[in-house]
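Reopening this ticket.

The earlier resolution said the output was attached, but the attachment link was broken on my side. Pasting everything inline this time so it's all in one place.
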Amino acid sequence: MENKIRIWIAAVLAVAVLFLSGQARAEGVPPGTVHADETATGAPDAGPDSAAYRCNYLNDHYTRGYKAGYRAGFRDGQQRREYRPERRYADGSVVRTRDTTASGRRFMHRIGAEFRPEYIFPTNPFVEGENRAGQPIDLSLSGHLRYSFQFRPGSIPDQIYGGAYQGIGAAYYDFGNPDELGNPIAVYLFQGARIARISPRLSFNYEWNFGLSFGWKPYDDAVNPLNKMMGSKMNAYLNADFFLDWRVTREVDFTAGFSLTHFSNGNTKFPNAGLNAVGLRAGLTYNFGRKSAEMAPRTVCPAFPRHFSYDLTLFGSWRRKGIEVGDKQYAAPDAYTVLGFNFASMYNFGYKFRAGVSLDGVYDGSANVAIADQIVEMGSSADLAVEKPGVDKQLALGVSARAEFVMPYFNIGVGLGTNFLHKGGDLKAFYQMLTLKVAVTRSSYVHIGYSLRDFHMPNFLMLGVGYRFNNKYPRHR
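Inline output:
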């Protein structure tokens, strides 16, 4: 019994010693000893194993980390206040909102005014002087007001398409003969871009205009019999310009160059001699929110995926026909229907050019019509008896070489072709085409075109719609 009591007492004492030893180590002092470096005041120093040392060490690192984090947060806040958050655009570029031309917007907007004096080519007797005044009509004066928008400078579309801009304009024309010719007003779409940069403030540009003109005084055998040039009150308006663009100030551009203009009704009315002019143009354009070009962000243009695409176009229109008998031409009394299609296989060489071949089918209701048994001078064409051939002589199938200049929203194309399947007459032809495709969606478009024969004979309009298959153009808008 006594042995058991001694064993229990020894165990309790051992546990007590161990407990006291742990407490002393926790306080940094071995039990029953004094630190060798105890100071005169009796306070121990902060040795590497002491609680005070560890506390100071942790406090020092916490303070340094806190200060570093505070400084980094302050710098980040300063940068955010200075630059503002980034904005990501659909074209893939990233631009801070306080960047360049228009607070990071996708487009820059522009308004402008122009004056165009032009010389009228003497291509028909009316403008040569066979009019009431007995004077040549050789001068055209016009004033233009225009709105356009341009891709944000420095963006991918801006770099690819040379600062392309597009918009709508209106013009007032004066030909010096309002009684017989009128003072028409033209409303048109236009697009232009840079051909070459001469200096940071000067560039050589091009521009095209396409639209309608209203307010003509057309041919009328009773009230306007001498105007055998224009047969309709409404005519198509086509224009091409080449000019210098000088950045006068940060917002204002001055432009000056030369201009080519054509008016006609596309053979929808007779007569249709048309009016052609060449001259000068000068104007001012204000660019809203534009800043220095050097401040514009530059993004890397992705490589273009070369590929084949296939355009299916369906078109229709109507036309008037002048029937030649001997050395004279007489107007057929009716308007004739034109229907057709083009299926073009085009290889896309790059962002701005595609070319290929097209299968062209057409039904021309005016083809191979002839005067039956009488001839009446112009103005009495309602009395003409016209013979129409069978449908098989008004159908043709041809093949043409095509090339298109590709720009945002608009594609301008040319074509040269010949009919290989037909029954002769008017359809045995070498034909040419000038087309404009206006994008509606990514792959669908509105088609506006005009066809000629042998580079000078008016053929017909081509008004229609189309769809592009296998379109792999990158989405840079």
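Reporter confirms the inline version is readable. The chain has two domains: 94-295, 307-469. The CA atoms of residues 217 and 232 lie 8 Å apart.
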